[in-house]
Design goal:
This protein is mostly helical. The chain folds into 2 domains: about 60 residues, no CATH class; about 45 residues, no CATH class. Helix content is about 45%, strand content about 5%. It has a two-stranded antiparallel ribbon with strand order 1-2. It starts with 11 loop residues before the first helix and ends in a 6-residue tail after the last helix.
């Protein structure tokens, strides 16, 4: 008997009745509540160990994939606005060519110098 416990044992079945299975994107494990407490604990430990091994393998694989990919500075793949545009256009690398780039070719160093000037020079309008 659980004296002084805030939840009477009679409410336990209703609590189990409203449980829902984990969604695919939710972390966790599911175990059966059949059998003794010791059996449930054993199942829970086995399920958690298996889950931890799966997570560790996934993290290891992701780390290996990231290590195998060359690191490219983020600034190399950002084209900043021209002609009064204020927002950068992401996802377009400096090596990409468009009609505008063909008409106004700039080297990476020129773009960098231009960017530094824009950052250091406050612009005001009247």
């Amino acid at each position: 008997e659980r004296k002084g416990h805030f939840m009477p044992p009679a409410l336990l079945p209703s609590q189990f009745a409203i449980l829902e299975p984990l969604a695919p994107e939710e972390n966790g494990v599911e175990i059966s509540i059949e059998g003794s407490v010791d059996e449930m604990v054993d199942r829970a430990i086995k399920a958690l160990n298996a889950y931890a091994a799966t997570v560790a393998a996934t993290v290891t694989a992701q780390t290996a994939t990231q290590a195998a990919q060359p690191t490219i500075p983020q600034s190399a793949c950002v084209r900043f606005g021209r002609n009064g545009q204020t927002k950068p256009k992401t996802g377009a690398c400096l090596s990409d060519s468009t009609e505008t780039d063909k008409q106004d070719p700039k080297t990476s160093a020129q773009l960098s110098d231009s960017l530094e000037t824009d950052i250091q020079t406050p612009k005001t309008s009247l």
